[in-house]
Design a protein that fits this description.
alpha/beta, four-stranded parallel beta sheet, 385 residues, 45% helix, elongated, six-stranded mixed beta sheet
């Protein structure tokens, strides 16, 4: 059964003093880039690093004594598992979390550190769900679904109550969609309190291979999708290129570390996909990004925004030729990071050598100017993305 607005209000009372009322920040940078006032709802600053603590605490707090004694089981790509582990520890309940084998290690270790047993099983979220349900059938524990649960949805919906209080004049709310529990809960609350608001959901365009692992769910649940069909104005998609650029901007300009799933709302707004023209709020759903992935995302995002330039060129294979190229880069104010020579296995003339340069640049225009200067000096340019 779908939750009601009364369920969300009741959930707000249960999580009061446990889940944080997260702040909203106005952003001059994103307002300038989009031509409209932009606010950021920072659920990445929530306990356990994501919004999931709301639904987990609400659901587990309703368990009876026998259910608590039998323990809880969850399947998760990471954030839900951490939240269930944390809530179970606080309530004195044993928890076992099934996670995909390729789940980010930062999320796996955090789940274990909160006191739960983390079991790596299957290749994706759906596999983890099947393994978890099979275990529940054997042991009699309570399965806490990440989104197909009315009390989990109601807990996530408390964000909608906060947004209605914090941002009464916002026109458009942009929300990530994975399984749909977050968007369904928030939209339910906002439709009651701000019925004229525009509410837009954002999905990753390729859930099979995305940096937004927190929403890497093949499709929303039946319950959540039935709610979203009624509550959302639109559902849009963003790719990993767009998400990585948004992640970089959030870190550099807003000083907020946000995982891929948390950045898709900003990506959609930046690319003009969210619609509307008035003030907008982007929900940053989580900040639990693995450090190694963050490095890769930053490099990719910086390259896409013209802050890194990787080019191949050819120089005559004789003394002094390479220094001419490097001096040209210096004159154009490029900051050289690395130089690689390629002589073997390349389709080049006997008297040539291929050179690959990685250069830190100011912006896309600077990249274009540097490439043009190289061409003008007789150095062919092949830009690598």
């Amino acid at each position: 059964m779908a939750p009601t607005f009364a369920d969300i209000e009741a959930a707000r009372g249960r999580i009061d003093g446990i889940a944080r009322v997260t702040p909203v920040y106005s952003s001059e940078t994103f307002s300038r880039l989009t031509g409209r006032p932009v606010w950021l709802k920072a659920e990445n600053l929530q306990r356990t690093g994501a919004f999931k603590i709301r639904g987990a605490v609400n659901r587990l707090s309703l368990l009876g004594e026998r259910e608590r004694a039998a323990g809880v089981v969850a399947a998760s790509a990471g954030n839900h598992g951490q939240a269930v582990a944390w809530a179970a520890r606080e309530l004195g309940i044993d928890a076992k979390i099934f996670m995909p084998e390729d789940a980010p290690m930062a999320k796996v270790e955090a789940t274990r550190n909160y006191g739960a047993e983390a079991v790596l099983a299957g290749t994706d979220f759906d596999d983890a769900v099947r393994r978890a349900k099979a275990y529940v059938a054997e042991c009699g524990a309570t399965f806490v679904h990440a989104f197909e649960d009315e009390q989990v949805i109601a807990g996530q919906g408390t964000i909608g109550l906060e947004l209605a209080d914090q941002l009464p004049d916002v026109e458009t709310f942009v929300l990530p969609i994975g399984g749909g529990g977050l968007a369904a809960g928030i939209a339910l609350g906002l439709r009651e309190l701000r019925p004229r608001s525009r509410i837009v959901g954002v999905q990753a365009s390729d859930v099979a291979n995305t940096i937004a692992d927190g929403i890497a769910v093949k499709h929303p649940g039946e319950l959540t999708m039935s709610m979203l069909d009624d509550l959302l104005d639109d559902i849009v998609h963003v790719d990993d290129h767009e998400t990585s650029e948004a992640t970089v901007l959030l870190l550099e300009r807003a000083k907020l570390v946000v995982e891929g799933a948390g950045a898709v709302s900003v990506a959609a707004l930046l690319k003009g996909k969210a619609g509307g023209s008035g003030a907008a709020c982007c929900l940053l759903s989580g900040g639990n990004i693995d450090a190694t992935l963050l490095i890769s995302v930053m490099r990719h995002g910086l390259t896409r925004s013209g802050r890194y330039l990787v080019v191949r060129s050819k120089v005559a294979d004789r003394p002094g030729e390479l220094i001419k190229l490097l001096e040209l880069v210096a004159r154009e104010r490029g900051n050289l990071v690395s130089v690689e020579h390629h002589r073997e296995g390349m389709a080049i003339d006997v008297a040539e050598t291929e050179v690959e340069l990685t250069v830190i640049t100011r912006d896309a225009e600077h990249c274009t100017d540097l490439c043009a200067a190289m061409e003008a000096e007789g150095f062919p340019v092949e830009q690598i993305e």
